[in-house]
C-alpha cells in the first residue's frame, strides 16, 4: 500500500498517477490519517462493476 501526505500528492501528482497504473491505489493522508484515494479508472470500473453485481443478486 502506498500512502503519502497531501502536500506530497500535490507536488508530485503526475508521478503518483503513473504509479497507480503500476502498483494500484495510492492513499493520501491528511494530518497522518487516511483521507483520499487515487486509483486508475480501470480499477474503479472493476470495483463498481463487482459491487453492482452483488447488489443485483
In short:
This protein is 58% helix and 26% strand.
Summarize the topology.
Layout: E1 2-5, H1 6-11, H2 13-23, E2 26-30, E3 33-38, H3 41-56
Parallel strand pairs: 1-2
Antiparallel strand pairs: 2-3
Spatial shape: elongated
Distance between termini? 31 Å
Structural class: alpha+beta
What order do the strands of the largest sheet run in, or round the barrel if closed?
A: 1-2-3
Number of helical segments? 3
Relative strand content: 25-35%
Radius of gyration: 13 Å
Largest sheet entry: 3 strands, mixed
Written description of the protein model:
The protein has 3 helices and 3 strands; from the N terminus they run E-H-H-E-E-H. It has helices at 6-11, 13-23, 41-56, and strands spanning 2-5, 26-30, 33-38. It has a 3-stranded mixed beta sheet with strand order 1-2-3. Strand 2 and strand 3 (33-38) form a beta hairpin.
Amino acid at each position: 500500500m502506498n500512502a503519502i501526505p497531501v502536500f506530497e500528492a500535490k507536488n508530485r501528482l503526475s508521478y503518483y498517477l503513473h504509479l497507480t497504473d503500476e502498483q494500484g491505489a495510492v492513499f493520501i493522508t491528511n494530518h497522518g490519517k487516511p483521507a483520499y484515494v487515487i486509483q486508475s479508472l480501470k480499477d474503479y470500473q472493476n470495483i463498481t462493476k463487482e459491487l453492482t453485481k452483488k447488489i443485483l443478486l
